[in-house]
């Protein structure tokens, strides 16, 4: 895009298509960005409580994106589940069977180099790539290449950054959606470099963490392209599709806006009060 380390944004030319988002045609588009849909050339990280449906949500998103635009090149990298595991998902969600999947399985008994395969496949140029999960892929690379975990992370982040910038055979700005593991307390696992590369952090949570059957919702705790704190509730038991509760979502948005309006009024009142006090002190 440019070679100088010091530059001005007005000197950088972008292809207008870079700012046309991918749409799922579901309520999920409303939280993926303020302009609706999944942006191009960005990195979204997905974390959540165990059993909340992270893989299902991602696969459903990919399948819907593929349906709305069949020309998109979409790839799912599975480092946690094999073909048999994913076959169960396909039984519940038949639309998953049409997704392109790269299975990454560590086999210490033979001389395997999954990283070479992953690198080669990614350089083909994909519009959207989902990784399940970042930590598992990182661990596979560490073991097979006999390197430290930090170096394995660096390899993944380096190629992600290059793909974001369109350094592939199709010159497309690849968007990455990566599932990441969390600690028992629900905290994000990863280095500061990984955190800084994330455009948005999507959290999938249970309303009651002690009850796996409680209501589930999506909320962004970090979002450079959209809002944080607004909950989108969903249900996985609807036969072939994830159901998003649009009514509840709109209500939550209204409540958040009301809270913001009240906060703004209080802040403005406090500023006006301070000005009055300062003027009185100056007059005295």
Comma- or semicolon-separated keywords:
8 helices; alpha/beta; 9-stranded mixed beta sheet; globular; 284 residues
Summarize the structure.
By secondary structure, this protein is of the alpha/beta class. Helices cover 39% and strands 16% of the residues. It contains 8 helices and 9 strands.
Question: If you had to describe this structure to a student in words, what would you say it looks like?
Answer:
It is a single chain. Helix content is 39%, strand content 16%. With 284 residues, the chain is α/β, with parallel strands linked by helices. Helix 5 crosses helix 6. The longest helix is centred in the last third of the chain and has 38 residues, at 246-283. The protein is globular, with a radius of gyration of 22 Å. The mean pLDDT is 89.
Fold blueprint:
Blueprint: H1 29-32, E1 43-48, H2 54-68, E2 74-78, H3 83-92, E3 100-103, H4 114-122, E4 128-132, H5 134-145, H6 149-164, E5 175-179, H7 192-197, E6 200-206, E7 216-223, E8 232-235, E9 243-244, H8 246-283
Parallel strand pairs: 1-5, 1-6, 2-3, 2-4, 4-5
Antiparallel strand pairs: 6-7, 7-8, 8-9
Helix coverage percent:
25-40%
Count of helical stretches: 8
User: How much strand content do the residues show?
Assistant: 15-25%
Low-confidence stretches: none
Structural class category: alpha/beta
């Amino acid at each position: 895009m440019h070679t100088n380390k010091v530059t001005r944004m007005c000197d950088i030319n972008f292809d207008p298509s870079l700012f046309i988002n991918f749409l799922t045609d579901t309520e999920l588009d409303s939280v993926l960005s303020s302009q609706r849909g999944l942006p191009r050339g960005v990195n979204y990280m997905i974390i959540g409580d165990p059993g909340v449906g992270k893989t299902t949500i991602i696969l459903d998103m990919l399948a819907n994106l593929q349906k709305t635009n069949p020309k998109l090149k979409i790839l799912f990298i599975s480092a946690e589940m094999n073909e048999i595991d994913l076959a169960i998902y396909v039984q519940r969600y038949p639309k998953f069977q049409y997704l392109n999947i790269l299975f990454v399985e560590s086999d210490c008994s033979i001389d395997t180099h999954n990283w070479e395969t992953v690198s080669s496949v990614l350089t083909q140029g994909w519009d959207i790539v989902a990784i399940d999960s970042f930590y598992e892929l990182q661990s596979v690379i560490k073991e097979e290449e006999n390197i430290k975990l930090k170096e394995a992370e660096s390899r993944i982040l380096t190629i992600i950054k290059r793909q974001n910038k369109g350094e592939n055979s199709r010159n497309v700005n690849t968007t990455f959606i990566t599932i990441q593991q969390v600690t028992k307390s629900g905290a994000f696992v990863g280095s500061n470099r990984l955190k800084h590369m994330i455009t948005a952090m999507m959290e999938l949570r249970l309303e009651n963490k002690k009850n796996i059957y409680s209501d589930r919702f999506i909320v962004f705790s970090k979002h450079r392209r959209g809002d944080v704190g607004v909950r989108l509730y969903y249900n996985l038991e609807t036969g072939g599709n994830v159901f998003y509760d649009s009514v509840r979502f709109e209500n939550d948005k209204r409540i958040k806006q009301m809270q913001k309006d009240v906060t703004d009024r209080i802040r403005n009142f406090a500023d006006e009060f301070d000005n009055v006090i300062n003027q009185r002190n100056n007059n005295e």
